[in-house]
TrEMBL record, chain A:
It comes from the Bacteria. GO terms for molecular function: ribonucleoside-triphosphate reductase (thioredoxin) activity. One of its GO terms (biological process) is DNA replication. It holds the Pfam family NRDD. This is Anaerobic ribonucleoside triphosphate reductase. It comes from uncultured Anaerotruncus sp.
Length: 59, 772
């Protein structure tokens, strides 16, 4: 008795699915930048990282 | 002979001389006139004048109105003419308002949120849904109405021109901003949300459910955030009750199983009730109140004392484990609820926040631990929860140093925050917070709203300097960059103009208060009707609320200190010590004015570092149009938030914290400092903690650490994703095979024991602590 096997190597999941990018805006979290208004989007693009190495540690 | 007249929309309609007579008569009546015949006569003269001017050509409405004015003046009725002119100007304003509003409605209706900035004013609302759009219709209409008919023209003009921003104008005539909800008080004895009474809860699960209900109910009465200042203390009562219940159940089972006790449940229940009645004791987690000894005595009369002890031990251990589990589930349900129930105007979840961290009782600790763990686990597919905003209260002596009772919870808070962006951290040791603190009294612990609002001092009633039951009434922000641009490097002139602006804001805040004060208790069925707001429990449904509202704050805010300093001196306060000095002077001055006004009037005026979502773009848009592009000032699409160092400026985390900290002391109405971390702080908890500790030492009142949190919905990976998912290897939009997902252990199996990542057993092993 042969049961039909789905070939799991061929079944694809996630086509068209993007990544979620959680960002903080005005203090609360939003799962996608799509909902940000234009000004906050611009601000988010500008955000730089703040380094946590203190100057003294650079030898 | 004029037969037709051309309307503004281009249609021609029959001309009616009587309409002119009526209009003239109306204008005359304002001045006390009552001679309709004269009005008719004048109307006829208007017609003659028109025929003279335009012959056979049909006149437009504008031309007719010009003719009326001309005729009235020619005939010596200049005052009537003036009334007519004013009436005409008013009609024009109304018409323009209708047009502008209709245009906004048109865009809301036909544009997708993607193309419509107004729809995206509030990131928390999906502007593409029916309710989201309806909320916007209401909101925009209310704002226009307020601008036209409610506001004093001076305030209206200042707002429209962009000198100030009156926040939440849509709710101007309706309510106040926010409140800290004391759930210990609210739950005691139960409460009502409009229909039906909710009894005092008896189980941690009910406590959590009622917590959500309280937030949602209060959100219906106010437009701003809803916060619980004593989350751990309040929920702890639920843990106590659940433990008691589970202890009783487990003891009964043990006695039945091990000792063959008949009717074990009844018997044990009876015994426990008797103990409570006679001694007031009941089983608690700490097991140090003498209950066990008392119970042992009585059990020993019913069974072998050694067996009795065995049963007690079993009961306690099982109850503790089960209570812990139950608490976790309750916290998980709370987080889920606050992320999914769209109960603010039907279009969004409430702006909820919870404060915790200082309850050192075993029950309070169990609450704190589990709310953190539930947050860490995430929502149904391991997603990061967006609400509530968690604020962990850091306090030396309680949870800051090794060896302190809740230090483990502080470490856990850092671990969870490094992954999930919450909790934020508030610092009770900041001098301006510490001054109120009394150990063991949660009401003296400053609690923040998630957005950053802070209400503690109370000039109206200095004996009630508390957080519970109070909040902000309204706030209005000043456009600092504009004042700087106008001052043209003259700092004295800047201060002069700032002073005038502050005068205006003070008056406007008070005018708005007068409107809010005239409302009655029944306009706020939950906030006031259930006694949530301080002293509202002393009022009856038809009482005006003005007196108790005075416990709230009237707050002035600001935006763009960085751009302001840049305009005044050429440098913002991140790049120049001189500018930092000037910045502190400016904000210090604003604070001084608020304090003076408070002392003078007995109202709680305060200064806030405005949160600014919609506002971040509004002022700069207007200023760019008016003043052109000024480098470092108006050359971006936003003004920097409050006193923050600009987000684009390269600066060390610790320096940023130290530069911003002194502004926290000045902004008694609320403040926050953010740090942006690179990489995944979950892999470098020491660095994360170092940032939080720096905030504490620098005197920051409220702080938050930002880092990218990305998630692949397909395999559940949460962390940093650049272009390729580190777990399953797919790119955005790509598919990945089921076989592959199974191989990496990330195929949907929803194993309850490995919450968070579709049951990925390998995730924990990946975590490697990095050195700083």
């Amino acid at each position: 008795m042969q049961t039909t096997q789905y070939n799991e190597e061929e079944i694809m999941i996630g086509e068209g699915v993007g990544f979620e990018r959680i960002r903080r805006i005005t203090g609360y979290l939003v799962g996608t930048l799509d909902r940000f208004n234009n000004a906050k989007r611009a601000e988010e693009r500008d955000r730089v990282k703040h380094s946590v190495t203190s100057p003294m540690e650079r030898i | 002979m004029i037969r037709q007249i051309v309307k503004r929309d281009g249609r021609t309609v029959p001309f009616d001389e009587k309409k002119i007579a009526d209009a003239i008569f109306k204008a005359a009546k304002v001045l006390g006139g009552d001679n309709y015949e004269m009005a008719q006569d004048l109307a006829h003269q208007v017609v003659l004048y028109l025929e003279q001017q335009y012959g056979e050509v049909e006149p437009t409405v504008e031309q007719v109105q010009d003719a009326v004015e001309h005729t009235l003046i020619e005939n010596g009725h200049s005052r009537t003419a003036k009334e007519y002119i004013l009436y005409r100007a008013q009609r024009t304003r109304v018409r323009e308002m209708n047009t502008k509003l209709m245009k906004i409605y048109e865009d809301l209706t036909f544009q997708d949120a993607e193309d419509n900035d107004v729809k995206r004013e509030n990131a928390n609302i999906d502007g593409d849904t029916p309710m989201g759009t309806m909320l916007k219709y209401g909101s925009e209409g209310a704002k226009q109405f307020c601008e036209m008919y409610i506001l004093d023209p001076a305030y209206s003009k200042a707002h429209i021109d962009g000198d100030i921003h009156i926040h939440d104008m849509d709710f101007y005539t309706l309510t106040t901003t926010c409140c800290q909800i004391d759930i210990e008080k609210l739950f005691r004895g139960g409460f009502s949300t409009g229909h039906g009474f909710l009894r005092e809860p008896n189980d941690i699960q009910s406590y959590a459910a009622l917590g959500c209900i309280a937030i949602q109910s209060n959100q219906n009465d106010q437009h701003g955030g809803q916060s619980i200042p004593n989350f751990d203390y309040g929920m702890a009562h639920g843990v106590v009750k659940t433990f008691r219940k589970l202890y009783r159940k487990n003891l009964a089972k043990a006695c039945e199983l091990l000792c063959g006790m008949e009717n074990a449940e009844e018997t044990i229940k009876g015994m426990m009730n008797a103990i409570q009645e006679e001694t007031g004791l009941y089983p608690i987690l700490a097991d140090d109140n003498g209950y066990r000894e008392e119970e042992a005595k009585r059990l020993g009369e019913m069974m072998d004392p050694a067996l009795a002890e065995h049963c007690q031990q079993f009961a306690h251990k099982s109850a503790a484990q089960e209570t812990d589990r139950s608490t976790f589930q309750a916290m998980e349900a709370l987080v889920h609820n606050l992320n999914t129930m769209h109960s603010r105007a039907g279009a969004q979840v409430p702006f909820s926040s919870i404060n915790y961290g200082t309850d050192t009782s075993p029950e309070g600790r169990m609450v704190i631990k589990n709310i953190l763990l539930a947050t860490e686990a995430g929502l149904g597919n391991g997603e990061t929860a967006i609400f509530p905003i968690h604020i962990f209260k850091v306090k030396e002596g309680i949870n800051y140093n090794e060896g302190e009772p809740n230090y483990d919870l502080f470490k856990l808070a850092c671990r969870v925050s490094a992954k999930r962006l919450f909790p934020n951290f508030s610092f009770l040791d900041a001098p301006f917070n510490l001054q109120y603190y009394k150990p063991g009294d949660p009401n003296t612990e400053v609690a923040y709203m998630g957005c950053r609002t802070r209400v503690m001092a109370n000039v109206h009633d200095p004996s009630r300097e508390t957080t519970f039951g109070r909040g902000n009434l309204s706030f209005t922000s000043v456009n600092l960059p504009r004042l700087a641009i106008k001052a043209n490097h003259d700092v004295d002139l800047f201060f002069e103009m700032l002073d005038h602006e502050i005068d205006l804001v003070i008056d406007q805040l008070m005018a708005r208060f007068r409107l809010q004060a005239s409302k009655k208790v029944r306009n706020y069925p939950f906030l006031m009707g259930q006694g949530v707001w301080l002293d509202s429990d002393k009022l009856s449904p038809d009482d005006e609320v003005g007196e108790v509202l005075k416990h709230g704050t009237l707050t002035m805010g600001f935006i763009g200190l960085a751009e302001c300093l840049k305009a005044l001196t050429g440098y913002h306060h991140g790049e120049s010590a001189e500018s930092q000095k000037l910045g502190l002077e400016i904000i210090g001055y604003m604070r001084k004015r608020m304090d003076e006004e408070s002392q003078k009037t007995g109202f709680n005026y305060s200064l806030i570092a405005t949160p600014a979502e919609g506002l971040s773009g509004r002022f700069v848009r207007i200023d760019k149009k008016r003043y052109g592009i000024i480098p470092g000032v108006t050359d971006r699409e936003y003004y920097t938030n409050s006193f923050h160092i600009p987000v684009y400026y390269e600066i060390n985390a610790f320096d940023k914290i130290r530069l911003e900290a002194p502004y926290h002391a000045l902004t008694n109405g609320g403040h926050i400092t953010y740090v942006e971390l690179d990489g995944d702080p979950s892999k470098n908890l020491e660095a994360f903690e170092a940032v939080v500790r720096c905030m504490k030492e620098a005197g920051v009142g409220y702080g938050s650490v930002n880092h990218p949190v990305d998630r692949d919905p397909v395999c559940g990976y949460t962390g940093i994703i650049d272009d390729v998912c580190p777990r399953c290897g797919r790119r955005e939009g790509e598919g990945v095979s089921v076989a592959h997902l199974k191989r990496i252990g990330a195929y949907k199996n929803y194993n309850a024991d490995t919450i968070g990542y579709h049951g990925d057993p390998h995730e924990e092993a990946d975590r490697i602590p990095n050195k700083v």
